[in-house]
Design a protein that fits this description.
Elements (H helix, E strand, L loop, with lengths): L1 H4 L5 E8 L11 H9 L1 E9 L15 H15 L3 E5 L13 E3 L2 E4 L1 E6 L2 E6 L6 H5 L1 H27 L7 H8 L1 H20 L4 E4 L6 E7 L2 E7 L8 E6 L2 E6 H4 L8 H4 L3 H44 L13
Parallel strand pairs: 1-2, 2-3, 3-5, 7-8, 8-10
Antiparallel strand pairs: 1-11, 4-5, 6-7, 9-10, 11-12
Helix pairs in contact: 2-3
Length: 326
């Protein structure tokens, strides 16, 4: 009984997006991801690529916590959440099942959604990676190297924790210090934004580069909002859409804040916030009212038919031959 008092209510959100979980690798933070999924109740859950790392899949390493993630995702779908699995490069083998639906789970290569009158273009992003397109073996080798680096980093952070010092990310340090890596990320984001503007999308949402981000891009043809869901290897981040706003969820920062508020939400006009909250309730009431009208009309028709039948069968309304006088 006492434990129920401290149980946090799940946050209801319109859309949640996660990517680059890399189940089956040493760097995957499966327990943290399960904790996050247990804290939300989204209408739509989008898995934006590299959820299962088929490139590095091994029977020797796929712990129970990784299986629990898959079980949790299936459980959410069975309870009504629409789950979209967008294929990435590490799970590219699933592309042979593109456009397949299994209950509330749909496998796709990309996804276009309408969110409150605005168009969102969602895909993993490996299509922009030249190394994958032209030298896949090199990309796979890099994937193994990255996994080993993450494993080494876990030992380093274990030692730092024993010494009472903060955790340190070796891969982030390397990425930020190599000019080519920084340039690659910047080009990736700019290319995605330019294509989105050219195709008249309001939002472009990617994964792949393990860099959570929310930034407006603009050129002479228009503007769009670029979003990246990050990963569950280092950053432990997700994207969430509610109240007509996008926000980046950081597990290490937001896990103790069941109803955390981002800066955009603080700046929302109060009338707009109230309208966003009540819009779905009003729509539901209108649908219910329409159903009530149809139900009453159906009942009235049945009542008229019963009255007509009763009147015809009344002895006062029958002629000498026992037939209705009408």
């Amino acid at each position: 009984m006492q434990s129920n008092l401290y149980r946090l209510k799940k946050r209801k959100i319109e859309v949640a997006i996660i990517s680059d979980v890399h189940l089956g690798t040493y760097g995957c933070h499966a327990d943290e991801l399960i904790a996050y999924l247990n804290s939300i109740q989204p209408k739509k859950l989008i898995l934006n690529g590299d959820i299962i790392d088929i490139w590095q899949f091994s029977k020797r390493y796929f712990p129970a916590s990784h299986l629990k993630v898959l079980k949790k995702l299936i459980g959410m779908a069975s309870k009504g959440t629409e789950v979209y699995y967008i294929t990435g490069n590490h799970d590219e083998m699933l592309r042979k099942f593109s456009d397949t639906s299994m209950g509330n789970v749909k496998v796709v290569d990309k996804l276009v959604m309408d969110l409150d009158g605005k168009k969102a273009w969602i895909f993993h992003g490996d299509v922009f990676d030249i190394s994958i397109q032209n030298a896949k073996w090199l990309a796979k080798l890099g994937g193994y190297g990255y996994d080993m680096l993450i494993l080494l980093n876990s030992f380093v952070n274990w030692w730092l924790k024993k010494m009472g010092r903060e955790k340190y990310s070796l891969s982030k340090r390397i990425k930020n210090s190599v000019k080519g890596a920084v340039k690659y990320v910047n080009n990736f984001e700019q290319t995605a934004a330019d294509l989105a503007i050219e195709n008249h999308y309001d939002y472009v949402i990617c994964g792949h580069i393990h860099q959570p981000k929310k930034e407006h891009y603009e050129n002479k043809h228009g503007r769009c909002l670029y979003l990246n869901s990050g990963d569950w290897v280092e950053n432990l981040t997700a994207l969430e859409y509610s109240f007509k706003r996008w926000r980046i969820y950081h597990y290490n920062h937001d896990r103790l804040s069941p109803f955390f508020v981002d800066e955009d939400l603080k700046e929302m006009d109060m009338n707009e916030l109230i309208a966003s909250i009540t819009q779905n309730d009003i729509a539901a009431e209108e649908v219910q009212a329409d159903q009530d009208v149809l139900e009453h009309a159906s009942l009235d028709e049945e009542s008229d038919e019963e009255n007509l039948t009763s009147r015809k069968l009344n002895p006062d309304n029958l002629d000498d031959q026992g037939l209705p006088q009408d």
